[in-house]
Amino acid sequence: MAPLLEVQNLKKYFKTNRGMLHAVDDVSFTLDAGKTLGVVGESGCGKSTLGRTILHLIDSTDGKILFDGRDISNPTRRELSRLRQDMQIIFQDPYSSLNPRMSVSETIMEPLKLRKKFSNQEIAERTKALMDTVGLAERFWNTYPHELDGGRRQRIGIARALALGPKFIVCDEPVSALDVSIQAQILNLMLDLQEQRNLTYIFITHDLSVVKYISDEIMVMYLGQVVEKAPSHELFRSTLHPYSKALLSAIPIPKVDAQRELIPMKGEVTSPINPKPGCRFSARCPYVQDKCHEPQVLEEIMPNHFVSCCRCREINEITESVKGRN
Amino acid sequence: MENNNTVLLEVKDLKVEFHTDDVTVHAVNGVTLALKEGETLGLVGETGAGKTTIARTILGILPKPQGNVTQGEIFFEGADMLRLSEKEMKKIRGDKIAMIFQDPMTALNPIERVGDQIAEAIRLHNRISHAEAICRSMEMLEMVGIPRERYLEFPHQFSGGMKQRVVIAMALACNPKLLLADEPTTALDVTIQAQVLALMRDLTHRLGTSVLLITHDLGVVASTCQSVAVVYAGEIVEYGTVRHIFNNPLHPYTKGLFDSLPNLDESKKRLKPIKGMMPDPTNLPEGCTFCERCDYAMEICARKKPAEYEPEEGHTVRCFLADKEGI
Amino acid sequence: MKTKKRGRFGETWYRLKKNKAAVIGLVIVVIVLLVAIFAPLLAPYSYDTQDLVNAYAGPSKEHLLGTDKFGRDNLSRLIWGSRNSLIMGLGCVALGTLFGITIGSIAGYFGGRIDIIIMRIMDIFSCVPMLLMCVVIAAILGPSIQNAIIAIAISTTPSCARLIRANILTVRDKEFVEAAKAIDAKSPHIIIRHILPNAIAPTIVATTMNIGNSIIAGATLSFIGLGAQAPLAEWGAMLSEGRNYMRQHMELVLYPGICIMITVLAFNLLGDGLRDALDPRLKN
Q: Which chain A residue's Cα is nearest to C171?
């Protein structure tokens, strides 16, 4: 089966006063229908830009995007209009992602109205069904967003994204602004929807524990590049890249005496403007050597487990190489 | 740091209300807690549970005239803070009690050099010369891991994590007895959060500072605190040592919080969220505040407020499930 | 902390009511508006009924505020004059705000080169003094109320456009605008439905304050003969007519002057009150 989404060497550079900002630099991956790809990284790693570039909310600088077998790198107006039915986005901040001047029903029915092919009655029925799907009671029909809490607001955002029946949704930190008890409600809702509608997600987050819960495959990004990519359970079982290890070790675990060694990381994120050719993590990496300053490749160290680190095998004491695949 | 059992801060049956034009918000409803010297107490709860209000009340910086303490006492080193004059409070604030906010920019002046800001904080409460203050300020910067060469830089030249370090340096500059930290790492990335938490742990341990850490993150609590108070709708529903709360949670809300967390170590098929939402603080239910969301709610829960019950020493809970005799 | 919700409009109204000065302003504005609307019913005479025998008459039963040099009833002319003065004030602001919103939202939403070109043209416009602009327009189109309105509107456009553009820039990057793009909404729809309603609140205040200024500007133009033409009654024009007889009949200047002052003051009080009511953070 062909993958639903294929991204090849995607690049997005922004022009700034100090030079080119490499927000997304040479990212490639494939994603099968009904699966979830988790994209993890700290602020400024380009994960949000990646999601928006795939949706053509931002134009890419270079690279190819294939959706459902079609090349959508440079869509025409009409193609783009079609694509917007199939691809949607859910935002992080349920406070700024809803127009404060539009009621719940107006927000959810807007995409249907814009399509101009439904009668008013049909629109109203579909809106009701959508509200029901995401668990919003009908009494909120004429309510405005500022009267609702974060969880309900996020449900409105989800209903709006579902309105046109998309196949693929980019979820940009959809739960990081919510309290834990509400966060769990929304995560469960998203999983239910995925099962019912065979949705494909790209789940962007900085929270590794959330991503583990929801993703089939995880991609760790650092300063615009993919440093590690592996199936979810595999990544947590054997984390190979020094950055992923540090990231994992930094998560506070809600358990007493959960003694874990904090992997030291020097300094803070360096600038993504005009980066040097070598490994971008080298400035903070505890294992840095001279060869790290040469360009790195994303290599399949174990089956389906890709790492971009020239010292990966040494550090993790892996001797065998992947055979039978190319 | 020797084990010290002197109580530094004691809050007794504190009630705080906010009055707006036509409603009364019951933000804090009878909170009692005690903080020993050198201890770190975590205040855990969701948005709007009243955690920040408790900290602000201790420091005497409730927004006036809306915020009012209607009941209770706060003892700090034996003196009732609620009876002190504004002038006496000013002496305590910054000197004996310091506060760190979530957004470091609320504490930093954007147009003043960071070193000078720390020096100024020191000079405010200590009679030392300008040169000495600069010297102390540089030491503080180094203590939080910022090279002293950056003394002359401005806040905008620092990253988020660095700014929070500066704020910590500023808060600890006068060697306060008590540090109120309101979500100090929530705005930071996890790797930076780990660094800042490690720094706070290390410094407060070395200086013997007591910390009241406000957070919504149970992971942060487990790695930083000795005791925990779980706050819900302005009440402490469960209170105990980290071991009590994490290994033997008794209140359904505390259990619910743990169940709704995605866990790194085990794979769960589905999370178990707490249904519903926190009650409206302007219109609190008569009985247990958690009653409506509770899976184990009994008939009594809606009618009667559970009293504090101590099933084991140092571990209190407000729930009839634990306190069968209280029914 | 949640408080009881009144809705945006209700909340604004609630706060406005507590501001005494603003309420006084609002009451005067409403009265002046009513007077202007019902001028034919209220005025005892028409604005151009002459009674040369009774010229410069003092207050009497027939003429409560006396008459002018042609024996026209001063009170009736003030009442009719409120119409033209308000039309000038409101017309300029309406037209100027319309221009300003259109130009400002295009510049702010699309940004880049379009923004630079539009805003530089606005800069050039705001360099030309208003009076000069009016003289030029009057020279081309002839002096009249409409042309004065156009001239004043053009000179208020740049400041309004700048204000709108700045507000739009802050709203443009909000996520709900991105969400609208993601559901394939076209630019005009996004501007009208999503951006403008959220960017327009500060302009309401500026617009209210502008009405006062525009009334003065309109009166100024009429005063120098570029606005309302005789025999139309307009406060600025009446001021101008009365100025020659100021020594003997001060009331001819005083009446329209007081009317202008009170009306402008009322609009400014209301504007101030609205600003405080719309943005409670500015107070306390």
A: A96
